[in-house]
Amino acid sequence: MYSEKVMDHFTNPRNVGEIPDADGVGEVGNAKCGDIMRIYLDIKGDIIKDVKFKTFGCGAAVATSSMVTEMVKGKTIDEALEISNAAVAEALGGLPPNKLHCSNLAADALHAAIKNYHEKMTKDKG
Amino acid sequence: MYSEKVMDHFTNPRNVGEIPDADGVGEVGNAKCGDIMRIYLDIKGDIIKDVKFKTFGCGAAVATSSMVTEMVKGKTIDEALEISNAAVAEALGGLPPNKLHCSNLAADALHAAIKNYHEKMTKDKG
Amino acid sequence: MRKVYLDHSATTPVDPEVASLMMTYYTEKYGNPSSIHSFGQEAKQALEEARRQVADFIGAKSEEIIFTSGGTEADNLAIIGVTKAYQKKGKHLITSAVEHHAVLETLEYLAKNGFDLTILPVDENGRVSVEDVKKAIRPDTIFMSIMHANNEVGTIQPIAEIGRIARERGVIFHVDAVQSLGKIPVNVDAMNVDMLTISSHKIYGPKGVGALYVRKGIRLAPRAHGGGQEKKRRSGTENTPGIIGFGRACELSQERMAEEALRLEKLRDRLLHGITERIDHVKVNGPRGSERLPNNVNVSIQFVEGESLLLSLDMLGIAASSGSACTSGSLDPSHVLLAMGMPHEIAHGSLRFSLGRQNTQEDVDYVLDQLPKIVERLRMMSPLYDQVKQRTLKAL
Amino acid sequence: MRKVYLDHSATTPVDPEVASLMMTYYTEKYGNPSSIHSFGQEAKQALEEARRQVADFIGAKSEEIIFTSGGTEADNLAIIGVTKAYQKKGKHLITSAVEHHAVLETLEYLAKNGFDLTILPVDENGRVSVEDVKKAIRPDTIFMSIMHANNEVGTIQPIAEIGRIARERGVIFHVDAVQSLGKIPVNVDAMNVDMLTISSHKIYGPKGVGALYVRKGIRLAPRAHGGGQEKKRRSGTENTPGIIGFGRACELSQERMAEEALRLEKLRDRLLHGITERIDHVKVNGPRGSERLPNNVNVSIQFVEGESLLLSLDMLGIAASSGSACTSGSLDPSHVLLAMGMPHEIAHGSLRFSLGRQNTQEDVDYVLDQLPKIVERLRMMSPLYDQVKQRTLKAL
Lengths: 126, 126, 396, 396
Ligand SMILES: Cc1ncc(COP(=O)(O)O)c(C=O)c1O
Ligand SMILES: Cc1ncc(COP(=O)(O)O)c(C=O)c1O
Known about the structure:
The complex is a heterotetramer, with 2 copies of chain A and 2 copies of chain C. Chain A is of the alpha+beta class.
């Protein structure tokens, strides 16, 4: 069903956990649908220094969460905003068709975290 | 499909053949239906002295023809008239349900031969 | 790696004796039972012997058995065949909310095509109420389908009572007994049943074979047109090797059932109790004791998702199944768990273990050893579990 | 006793290699392909590999193959599934008089339920005329079903030409290729076909498995409701071992076909000529040469009845089949022979020998040795033969 890469990320997910007092936190999905992804960002200047995730969901949900954290670490915010759900799936060597919708939201969680960071910044400034 | 007794009568049919100048000849069925049975009788007084048959038809048609000739030999005409198609099938240990109609006409052929005998008698007398 | 197959409700291995019997009919006695030569007649005889074996197992007569390609086809044939034959009598149909999709989807298809369908609710253990059945029957009710035992949570329905009511009210009663056959007694007379579906691959027979029992006198419109096999009720060259395998599997099940059910019940309870003892925030789904299939364990493990559990178990050689929506690719988890009143978020984390002949106590203990570690690992990853620890989310 | 099986058009033995492959999937790799654990995924992979093998053999894409329980189900699904999906476009259907019952009876069922059916005649060799096809198509024609090769007399139809016309006129074209597969090339593109039925047990695969090819873009209403297998087009737990056997059987057929067809053609002609040389009053049914299946021999032997011939042959170990009415228990002999203009009385005495992989020249010579004696014996018993000798009945 899943590619080896997906199974690798599911079995040994990278960057699991939380960042206390994170600069940005984003969450998508809900328990009713069976998938929740939460992403924590540590941002210095323009750069994503550290990233962690917590996910409730299927194999694809865990693997895409893990993969997006790998893809984004060390990148600028603008670069991070360019990462799409499709790009995450592709980096994993593809996902089964029925997993492309509800379980492939990791990039959305990332973008939500960045949005949260921007909002905090604006509040801090304001 | 067929009982052993049917197969025995099919393989080694009794009394196949014709009786030249038979006292009675009866035929039922037609080639279109796939079954023709013809029975020849040699009658002395009231007694069926000899009987032969020729049959075009399936295994059941041949076996019932053979069986009826065995059943009738040496019997009186009245006894012969009491033999029914069902009795022939029973004597053979039964027939498959789909053979009980079109292929189980040997007693009818016998009765036709007796009728033919009576007709001849009447003509001779008349 | 150790392999522990605990998905016998999905399918079973073919009994080696059954398989080797089938081999003979694939390669040596391969005649078409419609042929009149010896090859054909030899196959025909074996086919009729299998029909007798199947009929015997459910207390029916041979001529009341129609062989099909499986439980799904038998359910479809029962429902569509009978409603077509009796549609002039009425248009109302009854079923329950926890039926297998082969029943539910077929009835829903009819509901979209001029029939009127009542779907009975179930209680929190998945049981249909006899009172509800009584109330649901109308003068124009022609047909009712209620399963014997549920494939997900193992709930056994009060079929004999429901059947008695159906008979009193002149409603044709179909029962899907795919999951109960071979596990608990199935008898068409004792159960007051008019039609019954069974499937070979759930009882150590081959896949692709099933049967529909149709009580003598019930009319059925055929769905497969052609050579007129199965007394014109199901055309198509008979799957003789498969049917013969099914027949022998019935016979073997019949011999072993009583003893095996006791053995499985012990393993079932050991697994059920072990899980609830070792893992917190776990809910047992379905009834306990004799109202539950002897081989079914179904639990919801909160704050983790079913497919993740399955994949993690699989990596340790344990094969189970789940009522998670992610497994099926739909958004809604198991319709059975939802009908039992379980919230979506908990249903997503459900696991079914279904025990079978090869399973031993060591298998159960292996699961009890591994499952808590898996759950712990997944909960550490779960944003929901945090909230429980912080008491912002309600736990079971 | 010598055993000579000459009824390969009725069914074939399963190739030993195919059978042993199936065994593995019955007893070891027995997972349900819908399960996400390794047992299930292993089965799923093998299932998809089989789909590719089947698709390859007929020049289709994997996703255009729907597995069924046999040729009969595939024919039914094609005809009922497509007419249901397209009934708003028109109600006129076309077929030929020599189709298999799985096609004819299904279409006749539709004709009784609001559709309009044209049944095309055939010539004395059993061939449909392309001109007749052209004339039969009306503006409201939605569907046409013409078989590739006839199961009784081996006539090969001009499918590619008929398909071209169907495409030009926007008529969906279904072909029953159950008898041609593995004997002559079958290619859905070269044949201009939209749907194609094939069956495993005619090509040394297991009984109870078939497939329907449905060209991409053609809509099909499903007939089996349930778990949504086969992309929701045919619900029911997949008969994985059977399907895997079918896949491998296709591959083996593909490898061996060209050579085997030449070998069988020689045996066929030896048998045909041998019979007509050794027995008088015999008619060869169906065309000669390349318009006939390489493995089919069909003759009518006048003044004797088919079932008697079959039984007599069977007692000598020879398995054949007949177009006699007595075989089927109906009054009318083969609808195919009647459609070819043969009188009833001659059709009753028809015999089909269908050759296969195990048959040798010795087998053919054994038949040529025995058949004349049998015919002689039966003719001696036949009241019709007398008449011929007395010249009161017309002989061929
Ligand atoms: C209760 C129930 N009914 C019907 C079916 C369908 O049977 P089959 O798998 O033989 O199509 C199943 C199994 O999937 C089942 O569990
Ligand atoms: C031409 C043709 N179509 C359809 C069928 C039916 O296929 P099956 O035997 O797999 O049901 C047959 C074989 O009986 C056949 O010869």
